[in-house]
User: Fold this.
Amino acid sequence: MRQKLSTTYLARTSAQHPWRTVAIWLGAFALAIALIVSLLGGALSTDATGTLTTNPESAQADHLMTERLGESNTISEIVVVRSGALTVDDPTYQAFVERLTADLIGLGESVVLSGTNYFVTGDASLVSADRKTTLITITVPKESSASIKNVHTLIDTAVAGSSFETLITGQATLDMEIEQTASKDLARGEGIGLTAALIILVLVFGAVAAAFLPVLLAIMAIAIALGATALLGQAIELPFFVLNVMTMMGLAVGIDYSLFVVSRFREERAKGQTKIDAIAATGGTAGRTVALSGVTVGVALAGLLLMPDSSSRAIGMGALLVVLAAVLSAMTLLPAVLSLMGDRIEALHIPALRGRHSTQSATGTGGFWAWSTRTVMRRPVVSLVIAGGLLLAAAFPVLDLQQGEIGMAGLPDGLMSKNAYVVLEQEFGFGQDLPAIIVIDGQTDLPTVQSAIATLQAKLDADSGFVGAEIVPHADANLTIMQVQLAGDATGDAANDAIKRLRSEYIPQAFAGVSATALVTGQTARTLDLTTVNNRYTPFVIMFVLGLSFIFLLIAFRSILIPIKAIVLNMLSVAATYGLLVLVFQKGVGADLLGFQQVDVIQTGLPLFIFAILFGLSMDYHIFLLSRIREHYQETGSNSEAVAMGLQSTSRLISGAALIMVAVFSGFALGDMVALQQLGFGLGVAVLLDATIVRSVLVPASMRLAGKWNWYLPNWLGWLPQIRLEGSGTAQPEIELAGSAD
Assistant:
């Protein structure tokens, strides 16, 4: 039974029954495509804040409104009409606005439920100070908000040939444009990432056939994971950008895992093993390392499931599914394909690259990495101090890290919603129709309640952070709703500060001693609550990931020192990545040169997400490198020789794998959404730092200094299960459920 659970057994069985294995995977792929087409689109949401399970104030207010008034099935949109010469007092202006309003309502209730304008209501707040700009407010059904495209088309037609400029903004418009931008970024990221990955794979393998195989398997793993996510989306809400994250992760780990397996297979074949034996030996070495690396990445991503918000959990689940699919494909589908292809995997080889690769793989010497290894091993203390100092210097700006909602500043210029935001802010004092909503639970006609509301309104009128207030009493429900527009960007720091003043000062002062409760909700309040919860739970998530990772590495390497060093080095790499994120995006150093947009904050939750992914991917390289070092150490008994040989024998492969990840992440960093720019840049820089400074300098220098203490395991921990990593092939035991100290 133990043997049947081994990676060697899986690889050999898949290779001996290749057509059956491929058929199973093709069936899963076809099912996944069907699920994606039929279910995935309807399961996605552009709401990045998700739902909090901690019942914060905003959630309490939302629940109260739903319970007393029923759930709102409408969304408000604002149409901005401007003229360069005419004012609203001109009959031509009035005729245009009235005709446009009538045409919008004429689209039918499935598209527009209602609409009004200044000429109907006489509301002066719908007209700018210079009277050249006015607003048309419309209401659209929430369940058919996708039909906002019809509204945009009608407006474009109405404006054509006229002297008026017309813009539209609101949640439906914003959602549509975010989805379109994210889809464009996804396509661009995929194109850049795949192209760069293929070029790097050709350089690493020296053969076109071998280069295409990891890419094809990564695409299949992504599709199957997306199909599973489509099913998951029937139970939970999925943020739209989970597609970007899953594609980015799938390309990165899927290609890398296949790269490790294909490279080891070629190495075993070069030793003279038969095809099936080479595949089995690959499964027992590289395949086992891929499995353990997948577990490590999974442990890191599992930390996101501890977060009490649906978006973090959904992203964590999606990333876990794509990593699982990549691991399973590398352990079963890839051995089957290698069995079918055999040595044809060397087809379309490039002689110059092939010869160079074979020479370096066989000897483990020569080239830059051999030179750097010898240099580091000769001067480990100096190397450790210099490399560690560089990472600490890069990490220094992390002290200024500020998390928050990027908001409109994170959207690319030229979007309708952003253009309308600028006009609204300049002409009306608020940028978006995302008001603060104050829900007052109390008898509406009670004098003390009315007095408290009047006091609160006076305080809001005196605060420049708020723009006007609309009060709607619901006597039958004993509920009063106040909607107050926020000045500027409703997701910016100023708006957040205004909500804090409202909650901590104005409401307590106005309602002191009054038999009523006032709660604040709205998009800004929800985002503020999300940030608060994120800051509260992040330390627990980090401790969970570090603790499980330590236990896993302790068992995998049967060493106390190796997991401690791995965690310390990875945290140093994470800190350096955070520092560079702050330096580039918050402080703007090099942002223009790199094509990024400088903003005031790092997107809320992004540092934690980067930590989870980076920690897993960093451990991926650590396990691959340390597995080879341990293999050489068990063969020679010499720590210094094992470190040198392990580093040299994996240098080309890890460098190629790291370059592929950097290329994939960079492709997504070149998108238009600032949040995705931050994510792609952060992960790309992190992998680059880990595969160069950490892997090529800090790891060998620290292992050289530690000597045989690297492999120390106290006798009282001898009961730990023994999981052997890289070995000499099929002869070495796979997994022993009980063991003793080495």
Residues 355-365, 725-742 have pLDDT under 50 and may be disordered.
